[in-house]
From TrEMBL:
Catalytic reaction(s) noted: D-fructose 6-phosphate + L-glutamine = D-glucosamine 6-phosphate + L-glutamate
Protein name per UniProt: Glutamine--fructose-6-phosphate aminotransferase [isomerizing]
Main EC class the enzyme belongs to: transferase
Residues of the Glutamine amidotransferase type-2 domain: 2-218
Length: 629
C-alpha cells in the first residue's frame, strides 16, 4: 500500500516529507518521490528502490520550498521504475495517489484520443491529466478542478495535488483509501497514515470517503465532492509512534487480519463484472482459444500459498471442468515432472520470489506450458517469467505469518476459475453471476466475522494449555483446516495437524481424548452432514470440539459445549466459561465460504500466541520469503 505525505507551512518541506515517508516504510514500497513548489513552479525528484536512493537523488537535485507532497509506491499498475514512480505530472499539476482506478483503461483511451501523451504505465498519471484538462477548461481553483476530475474516476483513491500556480496550497481527496490530515500551528499536513505526522502534531482530522480538503498555512477547508462544506472536530492522538504504525493494534498480524476486507475489495476492484457475469482480467494473458483447449491445470506453490492453490484446484475442477492437480514447489523441482503444451501452470506466491516455485515455473515454461502467476508483488521474479499475471492487491504484509495475502489469493483464484469456466462454456451466466455476487459481498461478511474477535479470544483462553490440536475440514474447507493448523503452529508453537475430515478414521482418531481440542470447520455447505458426523465422533471420544459454523446452527453449537477449561465471565458481560466453543459466520454461497471460515482460525492462532507471549510478528526460525533451499 502506497504512502502519501503532504506539507504546507513555513519550513523547508523536503526534509519533513522524506522523514514522513520513512515513518511509512513499514507499508512497503518499490520507489519514492517528491514534488515541491520551489517558487519557480513544482519540481520533481524520484528514485527507484529505498529512500536512501531518494536521499541521493535529492543531494544531486535539491528541492527547496515550503509546500510539497511525497510518495512511496507499491506497484499495482506498471512495473517499478523511475517513470512509474510518483509524483506524476501533467502541465503544472503534480499528483500522488494511493489506490486503484477501475476505469483507467477507458480514461486513458479517451485522453489519448484527445492527443494526451503519457509518460508512464500507471493509472495515477490519468488523474493528473484529468485535473490539468479541467483547469484548461477554465476552472481556476485547484479544488474545483480536482472535483471535476474525480467525477470521472471510478475506483479507490487517496490523492494529494499541488499546482505550479498555487505555491501555498495542497488539495487532497479520498475514497476507499486512507488519508489523515494533521493540524499544526501555521502549518498543516496530510498523510496516508498517522505515523508520518506524529513528530509534528498529534491533532488530526480523519478524512471520510467522498471528501476533499484544501490545506493552506492558515487552516484546512473540508468539503464533499459536490462542494458542500464539512465541519469536523480534530482528534487528539495519544499513541506512541510504534502503536501508530500498527494502527493502534498490538501486532502487525492482528492489524493485517483486520485489513482483509479492504484487501479483498482492492483485489476485486475493476475485475468483477456483475452485469455480464464475467471476470475482467486482461492481465491474465490468455486467449479464449487457449482456455478452451486446456488439458490440465497444474498448480504449484509452497506453504500458505499451497493451501490457497488447493482451494483453487477444487474451484477450477468444479467451475471450469478441467482436470487439475497441485504440487509443492520443492517436490516439482527435483521430480522431473511431465508438462504438456496444453497445460496451464498456475504459480501461486505471495512475494513472487519463492525459489522452489520459480524453479518449477521455469521447468514448465521450457516444456511449452502456459504460465499464469498469482502474486502480490508487481514485477517480481515469477510474474516476469509468466505469460500472464493475476496480481492480488493485499498490500505489504509485515507479519511473517500470512493472513491477508492468503485470502486475496483465494479471491484471485476463484476469479480465475470463473474466468476459465465462462470461456470454456462450463459455467452458465446465472451461476457465474451467483458466485461473483457472493464474492463481492465477502468483505462486508468478513467484517461481521471480525466483530466476533473477542469471542474467539475467550475460546483461546480456554484451550491455552493444549499441547496438540487437530483441525478437520472437507472439500474446500480441507485447505482451510490445513491453513488453520499451520497458523497455530507457526506463531504459538503448539503442535497442530490439519486433516481431511473423512481421513479421521484412518489414524488421527486414535489421538482424540479429553485433552485434545479438535477444530472442525463445518459451515452449511454441500458436505455439511458428513462433517457434522465427524464432529459427533470426536464428541463421543470426549474430544473438546471447537466449531466454525454457519450462524444459528444449533446442532454444531450443541457439540461445542461442555469443553474442559474455562475462564471467568469476560469483561463484556456476555460470555461465560460454559458458552459453546463455536464461532459463527454469515450464510454464504459454498464457493466463497473458505474466505470466511479461515478468519476465525487466524484469530484463534493469533490470540493463543499472544496469550502465550510468543513473538507473533516474527516467530522463531521463520522468514517471510523463502529464497534459498
Amino acid at each position: 500500500m502506497c504512502g502519501i505525505v503532504g506539507y504546507v507551512g513555513t519550513k523547508d518541506s523536503a526534509p519533513i516529507l522524506v522523514e514522513g515517508l520513512r515513518r511509512l516504510e513499514y507499508r512497503g514500497y518499490d520507489s519514492a518521490g517528491l514534488a515541491v513548489h520551489t517558487g519557480r513552479g513544482v519540481e520533481i525528484v524520484r528514485a527507484v528502490g529505498k529512500l536512501a536512493n531518494l536521499d541521493s537523488a535529492l543531494k544531486k537535485n535539491p528541492l527547496s520550498g515550503t509546500t510539497g507532497i511525497g510518495h512511496t509506491r507499491w506497484a499495482t499498475h506498471g512495473r517499478p521504475s523511475e517513470a512509474n514512480a510518483h509524483p506524476h505530472v501533467a502541465g503544472r499539476i503534480a499528483v500522488v495517489h494511493n489506490g486503484i482506478i477501475e476505469n483507467h483503461v477507458q480514461l486513458r483511451r479517451d485522453l489519448e484520443a484527445k492527443g494526451v501523451r503519457f509518460q508512464s504505465d500507471t493509472d495515477t498519471e490519468i488523474v493528473a491529466h484529468l485535473i490539468e484538462e479541467a483547469m484548461q477548461r477554465g476552472l481556476t481553483r485547484l479544488s474545483e478542478a480536482v472535483r471535476a476530475a474525480l467525477g470521472q474516476v471510478r475506483g479507490a483513491y487517496a490523492i494529494a495535488v499541488v499546482n505550479g500556480d498555487a505555491p501555498d496550497e495542497i488539495v487532497v481527496a479520498k475514497h476507499d483509501s486512507p488519508l489523515v490530515l494533521g493540524i499544526g500551528d501555521g502549518e498543516n499536513f496530510a498523510a496516508s497514515d498517522i505515523p508520518a505526522i506524529l513528530a509534528h502534531t498529534r491533532d488530526v482530522v480523519l478524512l471520510q470517503d467522498g471528501e476533499i480538503a484544501v490545506l493552506a498555512r492558515g487552516g484546512v477547508e473540508i468539503m464533499t465532492l459536490d462542494g458542500t462544506p464539512v465541519n469536523r472536530a480534530k482528534k487528539r492522538i495519544d499513541w506512541s509512534p510504534t502503536q501508530a504504525e500498527k494502527g493502534g493494534y498490538k501486532h502487525f498480524m492482528l492489524k493485517e487480519i483486520h485489513e482483509q476486507p479492504r484487501a479483498i475489495e482492492d483485489t476485486l476492484r475493476g475485475r468483477v463484472d456483475l452485469n455480464n457475469a464475467d471476470v475482467v482480467a486482461a492481465e491474465i494473458g490468455m486467449t479464449d482459444e487457449v482456455a478452451k483447449n486446456l488439458g490440465r491445470v497444474y498448480f504449484v506453490a509452497c506453504g500458505t500459498s499451497a493451501h490457497a492453490a488447493m482451494a483453487g484446484r477444487y474451484w477450477v475442477e468444479q467451475l471450469a471442468r478441467v482436470p487439475s492437480t497441485l504440487e509443492i514447489g520443492s517436490e516439482v523441482r527435483y521430480r522431473d515432472p511431465v508438462f504438456m503444451p496444453n497445460d496451464l501452470v498456475v504459480a501461486v506466491s505471495q512475494s513472487g520470489e519463492t525459489l522452489d516455485t520459480l524453479a518449477a515455473v521455469k521447468a514448465a515454461k521450457a516444456a511449452g506450458a502456459h504460465i499464469i502467476s498469482v502474486a502480490n508483488v508487481v514485477d517480481s521474479a515469477i510474474p516476469r517469467v509468466s505469460d500472464g499475471v493475476l496480481y492480488t492487491h493485499a498490500g505489504p504484509e509485515i507479519g511473517v505469518a500470512s493472513t491477508k495475502c492468503f485470502t486475496t489469493q483465494l479471491a484471485a483464484l476463484l476469479m480465475l476459475a470463473v474466468y476459465l469456466g465462462r470461456r470454456r462454456g462450463t459455467l452458465k451466466p446465472e451461476d457465474a453471476r451467483r458466485v461473483l455476487d457472493a464474492l463481492w459481498h465477502v468483505p462486508a461478511q468478513m467484517r461481521e466475522v471480525l466483530a466476533k474477535a473477542e469471542d474467539v479470544k475467550n475460546i483461546a483462553k480456554k484451550h491455552l494449555r493444549a499441547h496438540d490440536m487437530l483441525f478437520l475440514g472437507r472439500g474446500t474447507q480441507f485447505p482451510v483446516a490445513l491453513e488453520g493448523a499451520l497458523k497455530l503452529k507457526e506463531i504459538s508453537y503448539i503442535h497442530a495437524e490439519g486433516y481431511a475430515a473423512g481421513e479421521m478414521k484412518h489414524g488421527p482418531i486414535a489421538l482424540i481424548d479429553e485433552d485434545m481440542p479438535v477444530v472442525v470447520v463445518c459451515p452449511r455447505d454441500n458436505q455439511y452432514e458428513k462433517t457434522l458426523s465427524n464432529m459427533q465422533e470426536v464428541k463421543a471420544r470426549e474430544g473438546q470440539v471447537i466449531g466454525i459454523c454457519t450462524e444459528n446452527d444449533a446442532d454444531v453449537k450443541r457439540l461445542c459445549t461442555g469443553n474442559a477449561g474455562g475462564t471467568p465471565r469476560s469483561g463484556r458481560g456476555n460470555w461465560a466459561a460454559d458458552a459453546p466453543d463455536a464461532i459463527e459466520i454469515p450464510v454464504a454461497e459454498n464457493e466463497v465460504l473458505p474466505l470466511l471460515t479461515v478468519v476465525p482460525l487466524q484469530l484463534l492462532a493469533y490470540y493463543m500466541a499472544d496469550l502465550k507471549g510468543t513473538d507473533v510478528d516474527q516467530p522463531r526460525n521463520l522468514a517471510k520469503t523463502v529464497t534459498v533451499e
